[in-house]
Amino acid sequence: MSVRSFPMPRWPNRGDGWCAWCGEAVARPARTWHKACLEQYQLHTWPAVQIAFVKDRDGAKCWDCGETAEKWNRGCEARRIGSPDHVGVYRSIRRVSALELEHDVPLWRVAHLPAEDRRRYFGPDNLRLRCPPCHKAKSKLEATERAALKAANQNAPQPKESAA
User: Fold this and answer.
1) What DSSP designation does 107 have?
2) Can you tell me the distance from the alpha carbon of 99 to that of 97, in angstroms, rounded to the nearest whole number?
3) What is the CA radius of gyration of the chain?
4) Cα(58)–Cα(99) distance, rounded to whole angstroms?
5) DSSP alpha helices (H): ranges in 59-107?
6) Which DSSP helix (H) or strand (E) runs through 127?
7) What is the distance between the alpha carbons of residues 117 and 10, in angstroms, rounded to a whole number?
8) Which of 64, 69, 113, 153 is the S-S candidate for 134 at Cβ 3.0 to 4.6 Å?
9) What stretches of the chain show up as alpha helix (H) in DSSP?
10) What is the pLDDT of residue 138?
């Protein structure tokens, strides 16, 4: 299992009639989720749901600098305009957010934890929106930290095996 893979709970009662999230019985036997449990699962694993939640929670601004990183997205597409036999070029201009969703505590930092403890780091409490410059700066710091840890582990003396 990858560090970025969500550690799904495993319950003794699995399959139809049992909730995949909380492990309790579901009212309709053909179902495998309670409605509230499905919403929690989506909040932990679906980026579109996570972004919408974090934007509502924190506002559409960068967690570090507070800037609202918005830009204009321009595109051209061929589309029918007017009569069915007339195709014209349509320029679409829309405002989009350039904020990026990321984990405040990186998942590689908690990869050694058991699945039950690691699961909470996928949730909304560990998610932040950052503008590209702030995200790049934070990622650079994390990359240097990770490289230093990797170098320290490679340079550490290896335990010698006894020849018994």
Assistant:
1) G
2) 5
3) 23
4) 12
5) none
6) strand 127-130
7) 14
8) 64
9) 35-45, 47-58, 115-118, 132-155
10) 93
Q: With beta carbons less than 8 A apart as the criterion, state whether 134 and 102 touch.
A: no
User: What's the rounded Cα separation, in Å, for the pair 122 and 124?
Assistant: 7
Q: What is the DSSP letter of 112?
A: T
Strand pairing category for 100-103 and 70-80: unpaired
**pLDDT in single tens digits along all 164 residues of the chain:** 566 778 887 777 777 788 888 888 888 777 788 888 888 888 888 888 998 999 899 888 888 888 776 665 556 565 556 666 666 666 666 666 678 889 999 988 998 888 888 888 998 899 999 888 889 999 999 999 999 988 888 877 766 666 55
Tokens representing 5? 């893979």
DSSP, res 67? -
CB distance 141 to 64 below 8 Å: no
**Half-sphere CA count of 65, side-chain side, radius 13 A:** 13
